[in-house]
Structure formats: structure tokens, C-alpha cells
Design a protein that fits this description.
The protein is α+β, with helices and mostly antiparallel strands and about 325 residues long. The chain folds into two domains: about 90 residues, 2-Layer Sandwich (Phosphorylase Kinase, domain 1), CATH 3.30.200; about 180 residues, Transferase(Phosphotransferase) domain 1 (Transferase(Phosphotransferase), domain 1, Orthogonal Bundle). It is built from nine helices and eleven strands. The strands form four sheets. Strands 1-2-3-5-4 form a five-stranded antiparallel β-sheet, covered by helices on one side. Strand 4 and strand 5 form a beta hairpin. Helix 1 packs across helix 2 and helix 4 runs antiparallel to helix 6.
Length: about 325
């Protein structure tokens, strides 16, 4: 037991060191990258802050706060960078500004029914704080919906949600965009039509555009959803299959409604993922098709993980089979 704990601790220390090294390496080029992104800002649609009405706060993270608001009579999600992010080192301020413009640039080029729509950028917020304005999804994150343990979210609807997410990711990969932070917190849903839920991919703060076959990796994303190749340091280049690994964990979340490794220590999770000895426990009620797809998505070797085109096709087949098994309700007079 002590050997396992020591090994996990050493692995955690190694990953933390890599994160620090990558941060230092990035500082030298951060200004030039920022200037390039800001030069391209003229292609964005700019929204005046006075045209926005903030209704309520939806959520807050380390770097930003998201509000439900109105813009020209339309419900929108307003994401503002926190003022606290602009207190401290200038290099950190520049990095956050670059991340903001990178997300805005990516969003502005995406148009798909399963990707959150982007409306524009706000430059004249209170105190000059930057913001993005995007499509508002009435039921919020899929994580929030799953936590409510909605009994109406049956297998058919969960399949539709998974399929929508796969369609959105298939589109992103067709545009050479690697998300890097795919999880139920970053999938947004609308359950207004109880028979036909809608799911869309959102939050592109960590996304990168893939120039060639591979994209620069490094330690990025949220730990339980991170592919082993992002943590083990075997290469500084990874493929879009890191998103497929994450989607395997997302399928488990949709199946169980739980959060992966909720009661495990950070170091133990890192060690388990890197050594490929840790995956979420699959419940006995899981269908064989769902199980097989999950296990193939989170396979240790990225080469054998399916593409999102294949994933979407398999989920479509599972959904059609589920529809065929559902009895038709006939109204009686």
C-alpha cells in the first residue's frame, strides 16, 4: 500500500513539474501570439455592453463568470472574465487575454446545430472587462441535469443526448479543432421539448486548432477526463483522440449520473490514468453496446479509439434499435 502511495505521489509531482515547465516555456511567445489574435479581432462581431441586460448569474469559475442575459430581446449567455484575473503579473494577464481571444476566434468560425452558437464579443464592459455573448441553453450543463437525477431522462433521451454530443464533436474534428476539455460540465442542454432533448458542445477555452496530424498536448483539461498520453509525457504531440477518451468518460457520466472518481485523491487518479489501471466501474445494468463503445473510447492506445464519425453512427444505430423496441402508445376512446 505504501509503495502504491509513494508511486502515485511521485507521479503527481512529475505531472505538476511538467505543468510548471510548460507555463514557463509559453511565456516567451505569449506576447507575439496575443498580438496575432488581436490583429484578427477585426473579424469579430462586437456587441455594445449597453445593449446587454444581465438577469442572473449562472455559474462562476476561476477565470470567468457566466450570466443569463438579454440582447435585443434574445436570451443569451454572457461570459465575463473576472476582474481579479487582471490583478497580478502582467504575463498572467496577457495569457488570460489570449485565451479569451482564442476562444472567441474558435467560436466565431463554428456553425452547427450541436455546437453552442456564438453572437459576438464585448470590449466595453465595466472596467474594460472582456466578455463573449453566446447562445443560452435553458437547462444549463448536462452535469447539472444529471445531478437532479431526473427520472424522465430515460435511456432513449440519454442516447439522443450522447448522439448530439457526438455530432457536435464530429463537426469540431472536421474543422481540425481539438476540444481538450470535453465533459458533462461543458455540454449544454435544452429539455424544453420533453420528447426530443437537445445537447450542444460548449466552453472552448482550452481548445486548439490542429495544423497537421497532431496538436501540441501538455497537461490540459480536467483530470478524470484526461487521456493517458496527456499525462505520461511520452510525447508533446497528441491527436484528436484525446477527445474520444474524454467522451468515453462522458458516456459513463450519462449512464450513471455520477462524477468519475469522486472520492479519490488527485495523485491516485493521475497514477491510475498514466498506468492505465484506472477506469470508472461499469454498472451491471449497462447494455453491452454501450459498454463496448465506452471501453473502446477510453482504450489506452489512441490509435484504436474510434472516430466521432464512427461513434455517432453507432449511437444512431443504438437509438434506432431502442425506438423499435419501444411500444407505440395508442390513445383509447
Amino acid at each position: 500500500m505504501d509503495d502504491d502511495e509513494n508511486r502515485d505521489g511521485a507521479q503527481e509531482e512529475k505531472v505538476m513539474k511538467r505543468m510548471q515547465e510548460e507555463e514557463e516555456e509559453g511565456k516567451g511567445s505569449i506576447r507575439s501570439r496575443g498580438e496575432k489574435l488581436l490583429c484578427r479581432a477585426s473579424f469579430f462581431f462586437f456587441i455594445n455592453n449597453k445593449d446587454l441586460e444581465e438577469l442572473r448569474e449562472l455559474g462562476s469559475g476561476t477565470f470567468g463568470t457566466v450570466y443569463h442575459g438579454k440582447w435585443r430581446g434574445t436570451d443569451v449567455a454572457i461570459k465575463r472574465i473576472k476582474k481579479s484575473c487582471f490583478i497580478g503579473r502582467s504575463s498572467e494577464q496577457e495569457r488570460l487575454t489570449i485565451e479569451f481571444w482564442r476562444e472567441a476566434e474558435i467560436l466565431s468560425k463554428l456553425h452547427h446545430p450541436n455546437v453552442v452558437a456564438f453572437y459576438g464579443v464585448v470590449q466595453d464592459g465595466p472596467g474594460g472587462i472582456l466578455a463573449t455573448v453566446a447562445e443560452y441553453m435553458v437547462d444549463g450543463s448536462l452535469r447539472h441535469v444529471l445531478l437532479q437525477n431526473d427520472r424522465h431522462l430515460d435511456r432513449r433521451k440519454r442516447l439522443i443526448i450522447a448522439m448530439d454530443a457526438a455530432f457536435g464533436m464530429e463537426y469540431l474534428h472536421s474543422k481540425n479543432i481539438v476540444h481538450f476539455d470535453l465533459k458533462c460540465d461543458n455540454l449544454l442542454v435544452n429539455l424544453k421539448d420533453s420528447s426530443q432533448p437537445i445537447c450542444k458542445v460548449g466552453d472552448f477555452g482550452l481548445s486548439k486548432i490542429k495544423r497537421n496530424t497532431l496538436v501540441s498536448g501538455g497537461v490540459r483539461g480536467s483530470l478524470p477526463w484526461m487521456a493517458p498520453e496527456l499525462l505520461n509525457g511520452s510525447s508533446n504531440k497528441v491527436s484528436e483522440k484525446v477527445d474520444v477518451f474524454s467522451f468515453g468518460i462522458v458516456l459513463w457520466e450519462i449512464l450513471t449520473g455520477e462524477e468519475p472518481y469522486a472520492n479519490m485523491h488527485y495523485g491516485a487518479i493521475i497514477g491510475g490514468i498514466v498506468n492505465n489501471t484506472l477506469r470508472p466501474s461499469i454498472p451491471s445494468f449497462c447494455d453491452p453496446e454501450w459498454r463496448n463503445l465506452m471501453e473502446q473510447c477510453w482504450a489506452p492506445n489512441p490509435v484504436v479509439r474510434p472516430s466521432f464519425t464512427e461513434i455517432a453512427g453507432r449511437l444512431r444505430g443504438m437509438s434506432a434499435a431502442a425506438q423499435a423496441r419501444t411500444p407505440v402508445n395508442r390513445a383509447s376512446n
